[in-house]
Amino acid sequence: MLDPSTFINDSILELQSKIGDRKAIIALSGGVDSSVASVLSSRAIGSNLVAVFVDHGLLREGEAEYVEKAFKDRLNLRIVDASSEFLGRLEGVVDPEEKRKIIGEVFINVFERIALELGAECLVQGTIAPDWIESQGQIKSHHNVALPHGLVLEIVEPIRELYKDEVRILGSELGLPDEIVNRQPFPGPGLAVRVIGALTPEKINICRKANAIVEEEIKEEGMDEVLWQYFAVLTDSKVTGVKGDIRDYGYLVVLRMVESMDAMTANVPELPWVMIKRISQRITAEVPEVTHVALSVSDKPPSTIEFA
Ligand code: XMP
């Protein structure tokens, strides 16, 4: 990348000439790529860019509030609670690829509705170089997308030539908080791929609470600067435990903590044992539905980072 401030100035001019007076829309996830693409584009076209954050009911604890706080003064932000639509369609679905497919479909439907309502003509995306290089080198940068109900949007990808480290540098230059710039990746389908088996509000909530404890303790230990991803998985297994004198039958939670450069490979490093024990104790004490916490020690390959 050129010098970041030159890149920003050049991109602003290019975005202005490409989009003109038209309205544009972007799906803001709160991850670094869509955050940087949103703020950069908003610098170029102001409130003609609407950043849409869709709450699918599978977010981490406090995520919608966090995104609102971080972006409400920087962007023309629209937060859409579509959780009942997503969770309704996902009821009883067990297969992770089926979950991903449904979430993708519902997402596009929700997004298209809003784009139509706003009269958007352009779709800004936070695509970065590895995204298109890995998807078999689709190199064309000017293309349109037709949404399922017929809306055609012109795709604009202001950071498509950049790599993750460059996106982070750009984010800092754009004044984004460190917490956004250095955020761990979170999959689009969210907790749907971290709650194994059929999704219920109860299971999503257990996973969300256990995950919040993992994130809190990892940050407390300063391990967030070392790890690529760290999270809790709620398995579909129930195991026997004992609370006081009473036998209990609750969920098994698995802790997943990996180092990686690019998610293509990953390894589980040595972890501070006291921290792991503390996380386990906190989860079983604070999330009563959980009777057992295990630690995943498998690298990628042969395992994947996510469990589903
Ligand atoms: P795996 O589990 O394949 O994950 O080792 C590699 C990286 O991709 C993320 N991931 C996803 N991201 N939608 C996403 O946006 C998905 O369906 C998805 N599945 C995995 C995962 O968190 C890791 O960073």
In short:
The protein has about 300 residues and is an alpha/beta fold. It has helices at about 5-20, 30-45, 65-70, 85-90, 95-120, 130-135, 165-175, 180, 200-220, 275-285; strands spanning about 25, 50-55, 75-80, 120-125, 145, 150-155, 230-245, 245-260, 290-295.
Describe the structure.
This protein is of the alpha/beta class and 308 residues long. The protein has 2 domains: 4-181, HUPs (Rossmann fold); 194-295, GMP Synthetase, Chain A, domain 3. It is built from 10 helices and 9 strands. It has helices at residues 4-19, 32-45, 63-71, 83-90, 96-118, 129-134, 164-173, 178-181, 201-220, 273-286, and strands at 24-27, 49-55, 76-81, 122-124, 144-146, 152-156, 229-243, 246-258, 290-295. The longest helix is centred in the middle third of the chain and has 23 residues, at 96-118. The radius of gyration is 20 Å and the shape is globular. Xanthosine-5'-monophosphate is lined by residues 100, 185, 187-189, 193, 229, 263, 300, 304-306.
